[in-house]
Amino acid sequence: MTMKKTIRSLIIVSLLFITVCTAGQEGILTLEDIFTKGVYRSEYFGPARWIDAGAGYTTLERSADGKGRDIVRYDSKTGARSVIVAASDLIPAGTEEPLLIDDYSWSPDNTMLLVFTNTSRVWRYNTRGDYWLFNTLTGKLVQLGAEMAPSSMMFAKFSPDGTKVAYVCSRNIFVEDLLSSETKQLTFDGSDKIINGTFDWVYEEELDCRDGFRWSPDSKHIAYWQLDTDGTDLFYLINNTDSIYPKITAIPYPKVGRPGSAARIGVIPSGGGETVWMKTEGDKRDNYLARMEFAASSDQIVIQQINRLQNNNKVVIADIADGEVSAVFTDSDEAWVNVCDDMIWLENGNWFTFMSERGGWRQLYKVSRDGTMVINLTPGEYDIISLISVNEKSGYLYFTASPDDPTARYLYRVRLDGKGKAERLTPSDMTGHNSYQISPDTRYALHTYSSAAVPNRINIISLPDHKTIRQLVDNESLTKSYSALRIRPKEFFTVDIGEGVSLHCWMIRPFDFDPAKKYPVIFHVYGEPAGSTVQNSFGGGDLWHQFLAQQGYIVMSVDNRGTAMFRGREWRKCIYGQIGIMATHDQAKAAQEIIETYSFVDPERIGIWGWSGGGSMTLNCMFRYPQIYSTGIAIAFVSNQKFYDSIYQERYMGLPDSNADGYRDGSPVTHVAGLKGNLLLIHGSGDDNVHYQNMEYLVNELIRQNKIFSMIEYPNRSHGIYEGPNTTRHLYETMFWYLKKNLPAGGR
Fold first, then answer.
1. What is d(CA 638, CA 659) in angstroms, rounded to the nearest whole number?
2. Fewer CB within a 10 Å sphere, N or C end of the chain?
3. Can you tell me the mean pLDDT for 550-570?
4. 416 with 505, same domain?
């Protein structure tokens, strides 16, 4: 079968199966209900903002006339409700409709509201748009940066004294005086290559950097990142469908081993003037300035500087007057280190908190400002997931962890003086995922609870007793509709793959499961350090996998070594230098053990599918263990690890010159010769993250080795393959068609 015929037959037959499993049968899932009608959507709440130090909070609610949303204040204790900004207050002069609020923030004195609206997407998120200022005392609504192009402003935020707002536009930083409405441009060199106050593609994707400037506490200065992309190779995305000639977009994208942007941090007076550049050491292209904040002072900033190998995170304090820096703390590891997002200044800036795996577990430390003293605040053989809040007055810090079950999340607190043991606050009957948005005074929290079988429930609770004050979201309707489905709950279990290694797994069986029969199994895989698939949270109910189970498949997932499970440093970092190698071995060993353990598993019908890193893992499993996996679907995959970005791939694999064997052996394209089963490849041609190049490179090798496969391209879709009408449903219909065709469902 030629490639053209393969694609044509795939698309035609896919369309024929669009109507499979029509709605109307009680308790039966359909892809139309899931992906088109949104029948099983969850209730939501927020975004919420604590106000008055936690005495109240604000949130968005649909206005009585259905036009726009009101900003409503609730008293944390009593629940007393008051509309403090009505949608009707947010109607610009000369228009009839209120602003669509995408996000909002309050001035320090809570008298002025900053509304983010008319937003547009930059890479993955809507970070560009318009900003409007509403004065609750005067009722006046004005647009900030009115002279700027529509939907062009980014990251607007109040100065700490509430007199100004700073923002980024056209890669330059501006400050607008709220009393005089005068706008002052602070930087002037922003261009296609010079980026001020925001970031390039790879910093945003891999270091989670977007908002690139900070106000000093006294409002007199602004510290900001500047990136110079000159010298970074350009990757070209081609759009063939929006006009009669292709449109080409060039993105500075550093691939493995290639030069990245040169980064530096400067401080400029908020009234305008010269920038003082911080004198960080080393090559600006071979070091990442991953985090920066004012260091509990208006005179100094703190920077986390990570080397290119990402095995050394140096915390430096820089003087804004002359740019001189001094190193105060270094976090290092033989594998890699993580950026610390849990740095909070304590005791008038004399100490700061820092998360590190230096002791073998992810733990919170208290570090003196000069770095001479380091105290472990959470000793013990368990991982801290995240620092939530600190209350110096009461002497406690609050964090999430799950010492006994890495599939769950619970709230704990521990004393700031390093004495005493961690105290669990989440009640014992809330097994699953618990997340918290704690008020500044730590007296209250917005608590979200879910499990694999329980949709999100959001309450406001008191702390530390964790008593429910008021329920905000119960998801009763979703709970009823979900409970009425003819489905079985996820079953969590572990599998021993030998040599003392036990892996966490889950399984969904068909509703009419008969243990005397043998069923096909579809493994859902991710397997890379960036995520974990085996978690006891609702996650939308995992309806796609429940749908497959209703069709007669058993669906399973396994978290191999190296995934982002909180099982200690060794668990996560033992895969250093061998991405796609050890994990593939673990997945195959687990699959084989499951086949031998469960008599109802049909060894002749084993499938696997995954997205992104999971797509790469699917390919590695299909190519290297064809005796186990007969059918695979790989979506948006990396076929050659040298094609992915420098920060991610080098973090886990080192540099290609020093780990040539690892890069070769971990890349699926190396093992194409082993393909024996049915393989479907899916990719978006507009993927700015994992480029369509990966698809074409693999296809060429499959053709060269005369391997038969199927493929589908989604034109101009990004890594999530969701843009355009009906895209998501079509993708899952295609997957379902392919599975039904090549991996027959049902017990035998």
1. 18
2. N
3. 97
4. no
Q: For residue 296, give every residue at least 6 positions away whose Cβ sits within 8 Å of its Cβ, in sequence order, or none.
A: 345, 348, 349, 352
User: Do 562 and 707 have their domain in common?
Assistant: yes
Domain assignment of residue 333, yes or no: no
State how far the Cα of 313 lies from the Cα of 341, in Å rounded to an integer: 12
Same domain, 608 and 685: yes
**Hey, how many other C-beta atoms are within 10 angstroms of the C-beta on 675?**
20
410 pLDDT more than 70: yes
Backbone angles phi, psi at 423, to 5 degrees: -115, 120
| Chain centroid offset of residue 336 CA | 19
651-670 b/e with 16+ CB inside 10 Å = b?
bbbbebeebeebbebbbbbb
Strands (E), 186-269: 194-196, 213-215, 221-228, 234-239, 247-252, 262-269
- Strands 276-277 and 312-319, by their bridges, are unpaired
**Same domain assignment for residues 125 and 175:** yes
Report the pLDDT value the prediction gives residue 221, as an integer from 0 to 100.
Answer: 98
* Mean per-residue pLDDT, 173-201: 97
Condensed to tens digits (0 to 9), the pLDDT of residues 658-677 reads: 999 999 999 999 999 999 99
Whether the pTM exceeds 0.90: the reply is yes
Query: Does a structural domain hold residue 410?
Result: yes
The pLDDT-based confidence of 47 (bands split at 50, 70, 90) is: confident
Residues 387 and 525 in one domain: no
Say if residue 5's pLDDT is above 60.
no
Handedness of CA 312, 317, 319, 325 (dihedral sign): negative
Domains identified in the chain, total number: 4
Answer whether 436's CB lies under 8 Å from 388's CB: yes
- The beta strand positions in 382-479, using DSSP E, are 384-391, 396-401, 410-415, 423-424, 433-438, 444-451, 454-462, 467-473
- Strands 300-307 and 183-185, by their bridges, are unpaired
In a domain, 431, yes or no: yes
Residues sharing a CB contact under 8 Å with residue 579, sequence separation 6 or more, in sequence order = 528, 529, 562, 641, 649, 652, 653, 662, 666
Q: Rounded to 10 degrees, what is the CA torsion of 656, 658, 661, 666?
A: -50
CB 432 within 8 A of CB 454: yes
Quickly state the pLDDT bin for 123 (edges 50, 70, 90): confident
Q: Which residues pair with 712 in a beta bridge?
A: 682
Residue with tokens 């001189």: 324
Q: Which of these three, 312, 331, 363, is where a domain ends?
A: 312
H or E element that contains 520: strand 519-524
3-state helix, strand, coil in the chain (%, to 5): 20, 35, 45
Among 523, 497, 488, residue whose Cα is nearest residue 634: 523
145 and 90 assigned to the same domain: yes
- State how far the Cα of 531 lies from the Cα of 713, in Å rounded to an integer: 25
Cα–Cα distances in angstroms (integers) from residue 563 to residues 27, 317, 525, in the given order: 34, 33, 11
Please check the confidence at residue 709 and state whether its pLDDT lies above 90: yes
Mark whether 595 and 692 lie in a shared domain.
yes
In-domain check, residue 546: yes
Residues 6 or more apart whose CB falls under 8 angstroms from that of 560 comprise: 503, 527, 582, 583, 586, 587, 590
27-33 contacts: CB < 8 A, separation 24 or more?
Answer: 27/484, 27/485, 27/486, 27/487, 28/485, 28/486, 28/550, 29/485, 29/487, 29/543, 29/546, 29/547, 29/550, 30/547, 31/547, 31/729, 31/732, 31/733, 31/736, 32/729
Domain hosting 291: range is: 189-312
Same-domain status, 652 and 582: yes
Site of tokens 């070594």: 561
